[in-house]
Structure formats: C-alpha cells, structure tokens
Amino acid sequence: MTLVPDTVDVDALLRDAKIIVCCGAGGGGKTTTAAALAVRAAEQGRKVCVLTIDPARRLAQSMGLTELDNTPREVAGIDTAAGGRLDAMMLDMKRTFDDIVVAHADEARAKAILANPFYISLSSSFAGTQEYMAMEKLGQLKTAATWDLIVVDTPPSRSALDFLDAPKRLGQFLDGRMIRILTAPARAGGRAYLKVFTLGVKVFTDVLNKVLGGQALKDLSLFVSSLEAMFGGFRERADQTYKLLKEHGTSFVVVAVPERDALREAAYFVERLETDQMPLAGMVLNRVHTTNAPALSVERSLAAAETLDAAGEEPLAAAALRIHAERAHAAGHDARRASQFHTAHPRVRLVNVAAQAGDVHDLDGLRAIAALLVIASHCEVPGLAGGFYGVDLFFVLSGFLITWLLFDEHRATGRI
Asked: What is the DSSP letter of 195?
C-alpha cells in the first residue's frame, strides 16, 4: 500500500504567514512558485512584498516589470478588489551595504567608507556579502511594517540557505585575529601600536607594508576599524532576523522537481531546516507528469498500438496510445521518485504541481500555477497523492469549457 503524505493547505498558509521563504535547487520552478504564491496572497487581500536574492531576471519578467532593483516596486495588473497589493524587488547587495553605512555612521565617516577602495571591493564581490545583505534587507522589510506578508525567493542550490549562517560568520569575521591586528593602528593612533605588539606582529605588518604599501595598509586598517563599530549593530540585527525566521508566522517552502539530483538537494534543505529548527511548511514538487488513464499500463498501450499498426487500422488511435505510454512512463517515474522521498522524509507535507505545456511568463500564468497549488492541496484522494485528481479535474473542466465556447462560436458565426 502506498502511503499518501499530508498536503500543504496553501490558502491557509497564505492567509496566516508573515514570511515565506522559498528555497531549492536551480531549475525547479522556485522563482515561479514564489511569484505565484505572492500573486495569490495579494489578490486575496494581503499586502505582499516578494524579494528575490537570485540575480536572474525571471521574477521581473513573469510580473511584467521591466526591471527590479533594491526599491520595492508595485506590480501592475493585480486584482486589488479585496484590498491587497503586490510589490516586488531584487536584492542589490552594494546598495543595501551603502544604505547601512549611511544610516549607521556620521556623514564624514560614511563618506570616507564609501570612497575606500577596500569597501568598494567588499560591498561588490566579497564572498558572503550577499548573504549578510539578504539578512539585513529582510530585517528592514519586516521592521518597516508596510507588508502583511514577505515572500523570499532565494538563490539556487545550497547557497539558498547560506544567509542562515550570516550572523555566525559575521561574528567570526569581526572576532578574528586578523581583524584585531588590522584595527590596531586606528585604536593606538598611527604607528604607536608597534610599541605594544610582539616582534611577530611587527614582522607581519612590515610584510603587509611591503606588499600593499603604506597608504594601502592605512586604508585597510581605517576601513576595518570603521566597519567593526558599525557592524556591531548589524550583527545584532542579523541575530534578530535569524530568530525571526524561527518564530511562528514564518514558513519555509522547499521547491523541487521529481529528479534524483533535485530531490537530493531538497533532502539537504529539509534536513538543514530540521537541524536549525526552522518552520518547514512543506515541499512543492513541480513538473509532475500525470495520466488520465492510470489503469492503462505502458505495456498494454504499446501492445495495442502494435496490433493496430499490424492491422493497418486506426493510425490516430495508435499514435494516441503511444503518447499515453510516454506519459504513463513519465508519471510512473515521477511517482516512484516522490514515494522514495516521502519514505525518507515522512513528516514533510507535499504538494504536486502538474507539468505545464509551456513556460510561465506573465501574471495569468502565475495565477494558473497558484490555482493548481490550491487545487492540489485540497483534492487529496487515496492512491492519487498530492492532488493529481484535482489537477486532472481542473484540466477536464477547462477543456470542456473551451470546447463548449468553440462550438458556441461556430453555431453563431459559422466559423471559429
């Protein structure tokens, strides 16, 4: 007997959550899922901001925006009848870093930091800066209290959860021995620090002087000294945001496709979130293949097609049988992958979203994905885990309606 996992009540999640973090490997539909959830929540009356940390432009394109930057921009075309609103933005780590400097340093010191060559390099490309700034921006959005719900679309692969480590890494950076050495000149006043350091430290700084030059070493020392004082407040805010991610009202949604590598990454996300005691709402399994005739096996379909071919009869029926065989084979593969994941992680709630014929590139496409998520979460039937029945019903009804409209048009005008 196949166990049927619990499903996620998507509408309840969108109604109650304050922060939703979508994470998963690249190419799994994570950005589309985040955007679809945000659109549905906004059209149900909530004030929503969707933040993408992924530098790809898929989120802007799907929402009809020409660009996304560090400032939340309202998405046009959202149905606001219920009183909702949707804003979207993309993390600009240098701009966020600059804003921190301006907000937490006096004018003269801020100007000096912003012009410092080491700061320019750090704020643009230093490893880990993106994660620090993601934590900072999420905290800023929550503190602003402008939105009822913040949806975060994280970078692909395991870096999606790196921002969970931001407070810890920042503390290690500021408490490291290298930082203490580099901040010594500013603390002791010029070169007076040499009197209180050991010969080993003197040799070290002399080497830096020769490699970097006297002015460069001074710039580096003053830069690190300035950031040390300023980052004290940032470390506290990052810790607060980390705690916020563990509180009631925050939910993580893992997004994957039914492929081995993607599900391996999803397992990593699930286990990491469990280890950190982060609230996991469930997993969205995207691009799941289904069949409307599960009783007709691949073998029987192919055998029937061969029989028709041998008799020279019904070529269209034979082609349809082969198409069904391909769909049934893909559906069986996806079902086995999902079952394996559920066996390994039985407590994780699943929502299956059927594979679509084309890419999602506009608000209507996002609305359709959101509708499928909701239907899948409410139409659980034993043996049809994750709402396959609801998805099939959705397409059957849609097909009936479209066909009826076409016939009606033909009766009225004589053409389609």
From this structure: G
Strands 149-153 and 73-74: unpaired
Q: Are 66 and 41 in contact (CB under 8 A)?
A: no
From the DSSP assignment, how many helices (H) and strands (E) are in the chain? 17, 8
Structure tokens that stand for 317 in this block = 């029926």
Chain centre distance of CA 283: 12
Q: H or E element: which one contains 30?
A: helix 30-43
Q: Does the pLDDT value for residue 2 go beyond 70?
A: no
CA 411 vs. chain centroid, Å, equals: 48
Task: Identify whether the C-beta of residue 163 lies closer than 8 Å to the C-beta of residue 134.
Answer: yes
How far apart, in Å, do the first and last CA atoms of the chain sit?
Answer: 48
Instruction: Answer yes or no: are the C-beta atoms of 150 and 49 closer than 8 Å.
Output: yes
Torsion of CA 379, 383, 386, 391, to 10 degrees: -60
- Kind plus residue range of the DSSP H or E element containing 326: helix 315-344
Find the helix packing angle between 117-125 and 93-104, rounded to 10°: 130
363 pLDDT more than 60: yes
State pLDDT tens for residues 212-226: 444 555 555 666 666
Query: Do residues 331 and 289 touch, judged by C-beta distance below 8 A?
Result: yes
CA 119/CA 23 separation, integer angstroms: 30
pLDDT in tens, 56-110: 666 677 777 767 788 899 998 899 999 999 999 988 878 888 888 888 778 888 8
- Residue bearing tokens 């993607």: 262
pTM equals 0.75
| Other Cβ atoms within 10 Å of 370 Cβ, number | 24
Q: Helices 117-125 and 129-144: crossing angle, nearest 10°?
A: 80
- Measured between alpha carbons, how far is 387 from 372 in angstroms, rounded to an integer? 9
Q: Is the pLDDT of residue 204 over 60?
A: no
CA atoms within 13 Å, Cβ hemisphere of 68:
26
Is beta strand 250-256 parallel, antiparallel or unpaired with respect to 19-23?
parallel
Tokens of 166: 């931001």
